Amino acid sequence: MDMGVLTFREATEEDLETVVYMLSDDSLGSTRERYAHLLPDSYLKAFHAIKSDPNIELIVACDGDRIVGVQQVTFTPHMTYQGGWRATIEGVRTTSSERGKGVGRQLIGWAIQRAKERGCHVVQLTTDKRRIDALRFYERMGFKASHEGLKLHL
């Protein structure tokens, strides 16, 4: 059963515990996030850095007053494509009780629309290769695996 129409807004500091919980609530996230009722200061510092940057939006999806999804969208100017802008979607999570109900589809749809509003020529994202279902989902949303992505953890 699909979720009804959600509302979207920028996350607030009061949302941080819920956001970090969603980021940690799967097999990969649980190995790299530190969810606790007293969150590590690093999350608050990151939140304030995000809020102070007009080109980054931390967005929560709400069903009424309840947060059911989160994503971060970063808008970046590039010299390529004649100085074009692109949007990068990261940290997409749906609360575990609502997975498979269309929350992710609405989150990504919102991000694509926002990228159009900001004049972006492309929307990009990465997903961990172990997230097979997520990869299939993004392909169904129209994303193509057109590039090879590399990371160097420091």
What does this structure look like?
The chain is α+β, with helices and mostly antiparallel strands. The protein has a single domain, classed as 3-Layer(aba) Sandwich (Aminopeptidase), CATH 3.40.630.30. The chain is 34% helix and 26% strand. It is built from 6 helices and 5 strands; from the N terminus they run βαααββαβαβα. It has helices at 16-24, 29-32, 41-52, 80-83, 103-117, 132-140, and strands at 7-10, 56-63, 66-77, 85-94, 120-125. The chain has a 5-stranded mixed sheet with strand order 1-2-3-4-5, with helices on both faces. Helix 5 links the parallel strand 4 (85-94) and strand 5. The model has no long low-confidence stretch (mean pLDDT 91).
Cα gyration radius (Å):
16 Å
- Uncertain runs: none
CATH superfamily: Gcn5-related N-acetyltransferase (GNAT)
Helix/strand order: EHHHEEHEHEH
* The CATH class: Alpha Beta
In which range does the helix fraction lie? Answer: 25-40%
The average pLDDT is 91
Q: From the 3D coordinates, which CATH architecture would you assign?
A: 3-Layer(aba) Sandwich
Question: What order do the strands of the largest sheet run in, or round the barrel if closed?
Answer: 1-2-3-4-5
The overall strand count is: 5
